[in-house]
Amino acid sequence: xxxxxxxxxxxxxxxxxxxxxxxxxxxxxxxxxxxxxxxxxxxxxxxxxxxxxxxxxxxxxxxxxxxxxxxxxxxxxxxxxxxxxxxxxxxxxxxxxxxxxxxxxxxxxxxxxxxxxxxxxxxxxxxxxxxxxx
Length: 134
Prior knowledge:
- By secondary structure, the chain is of the alpha+beta class.
- It has one domain (about 10-105).
- It is about 35% helix and about 40% strand.
- The protein has four helices and four strands; from the N terminus they run H-H-H-E-E-E-E-H.
- The chain has helices at about 10-15, 20-30, 35-40, 110-134; strands spanning about 45, 50-70, 75-100, 100-105.
- A hairpin with a 6-residue loop joins strand 2 and strand 3.
- It is flat, with a radius of gyration of 27 Å.
- The protein starts with 7 loop residues before the first helix and ends with a helix.
């Protein structure tokens, strides 16, 4: 229990976050995760230039809350807050430039391809069984 109870307005004000602070944080993060991370340094070899390409994913969140219990046997009050964020860089392919032109070559994730094939096969069998029941 807090030694100096606060009013609801005082508690709410203590959690106020300036929108500019959050905007500045997001802007700084996006500056760091710019084109340099999506497109790698060009690699030159045998009359070809290869440029790695990646997908950038980011996410963040924050929250605040409080609890007040006015039970006579165990009165209590609490409050808290938190925030977090993260990012992920996933290679998706490469750009190849040579005497024949410029082309993007995607990387194929064999695991995702296998799962998609299994799901598609399962759906096809289910659909076939529904058609044959009629």
